[in-house]
UniProtKB/TrEMBL annotation:
InterPro entries named in the record: AIP/AIPL1/TTC9, TPR-like_helical_dom_sf
The UniProt record lists the keyword Repeat: yes
The name this protein goes by in its record: Tetratricopeptide repeat protein 9C
Organism: Chanos chanos (Milkfish)
Keywords: Repeat, TPR repeat
PANTHER family membership: ARYL HYDROCARBON RECEPTOR INTERACTING PROTEIN RELATED, TETRATRICOPEPTIDE REPEAT PROTEIN 9C
Top-level taxon in the UniProt lineage: Eukaryota
Transmembrane segments: none
Species classification: Eukaryota, Metazoa, Chordata, Craniata, Vertebrata
Amino acid sequence: MPMGVYYDKCFNSSPLIKSTSETLTLEEAGSSVACSAAAERLSARVDSQLQEAVRLKTEGNDFYREKNIRSAIGRYHRALLVLRGLDSDVTSAVKAFGPHQAPLRAEQSELLRNTQTDCYNNLAACLLQRECVDYARVQEYSLKVLQWRPGDVKALYRSGVAALELGDAQTARQYLLQASRGKPNDANVKKQLQRVEERLNTDYQKEKALYKGMFTKQKQEAGEEVVEESQKHV
């Protein structure tokens, strides 16, 4: 028997090699079971947190309908905090299980994003009900909604209102025109678009007067220079 064949037979039939191979297989199986169990625990925790966030959002909606804006804002913020913690858990899970182990089921991911979007949308609505409106925050929340739900008419409308109040009539016009395409007969959208057009017209008249004043001043200065030159030659 050739030496190479004899060596292969001995090597492959070695009880030590078989034992090591079996041990590795058992370790891999144990690791797979552990990962699966950890994923199931994470999924159960995600379900619990999602249910808590939805409960808080629903309470916020009830408070909003009762005109209790302060309590509604509190509930929406708490719901977002729960979801933010959930996002952190999911990120950690991806690092632990690897990119091929999806930490969220499709329905969980959809519920998470929808709840976040609703909370930001409702927060923007609440802020517009306050006596002293923080339009920068209204704009921030509405733009978050539009990142995840681009055609949301309410978010487009609020983004337009906020932009107008913050002095950006051109941007306000863009958002409100998009909102009007979604709700062409909405009285509030029409009213805000009218305000935008009035603001743009006012800005145009101011700009026109400014340039006219600059041009008149330049003509006067040019005329004075001509007079001075003519006087020099007298």
